[in-house]
Design goal:
The protein is mainly α. It has one domain. The chain has 7 helices and 3 strands. The longest helix has 23 residues, at 76-98.
């Protein structure tokens, strides 16, 4: 899925196009699904993954929408969370299918190199998108209803994320480059802003079924 710095860059770009009731809450929501530190990220359920059949999976952001519709329409934090799920769908489609990396899953050395690429690209994104600080979480966020999904470890997550701000752009990525990051951010901002406009009309612009992926290489 997209790195947390990528999500923050997407959030900052979206805020240039939309009016959020609370910018800080919006950006925290944009990061929150990844704020799983001590738990098992695969089973935490923060991304609403589900199998569609024996070999395909989907990130069911519509289920999150149904559960938290009123919050999404009135609270920037929930809107940010909702858009994070859509962004990860777009990112997964881009990296698996547009870049053709689906077949690389499970191969020795792939994930460590991909994570190295992410860290290098972080250095590029921090400068390009002028990420000078991290959003501040509400002091009582652990008491908010969204923690029914998972007891998010927001403070620890944000402290850990500070290290990403110091990543250095090496311009030697193998699988995922700065140019790739710019493209997927462009796609995410375009689709998410269209989804926000559709929500204002009581509609949806996109759907989970557009992003189903194969779970077997």
């Amino acid at each position: 899925m997209a790195s947390r710095i990528m999500h923050l860059a997407m959030g900052k770009e979206l805020l240039r196009l939309i009016e959020a009731q609370n910018m800080e809450r919006f950006l925290i929501g944009m990061l929150l699904p990844d704020a799983v530190i001590s738990g098992d990220k695969k089973t935490a359920g923060t991304h609403y993954d589900r199998m569609t059949d024996g070999s395909h999976k989907v990130m069911d952001f519509f289920r999150f929408f149904v559960e938290y519709k009123e919050n999404i329409l009135t609270d920037s934090l929930y809107l940010g969370y909702y858009l994070h799920l859509i962004e990860d769908c777009i990112f997964r489609r881009y990296i698996y299918y547009d870049l053709g990396l689906l077949e690389m899953r499970g191969k020795i050395g792939f994930l460590p190199q991909l994570y190295k690429d992410y860290h290098s690209v972080n250095g590029y994104l921090v400068k390009k998108y002028k990420i000078t600080s991290l959003p501040v979480a509400p002091h009582d966020i652990d008491k908010e209803d969204i923690n029914r999904i998972y007891p998010f470890e927001t403070d620890i997550f944000l402290r850990d994320m500070k290290d990403d701000m110091n990543d250095i752009y090496r311009n030697n990525e193998k699988y995922f480059t700065a140019r790739n990051a710019d493209e997927v951010i462009r796609q995410c901002v375009e689709i998410c802003s269209a989804e926000i406009a559709a929500l204002d009309r009581g509609e949806h612009f996109t759907s989970p079924e557009e992003y189903i992926w194969e779970t077997r290489a």
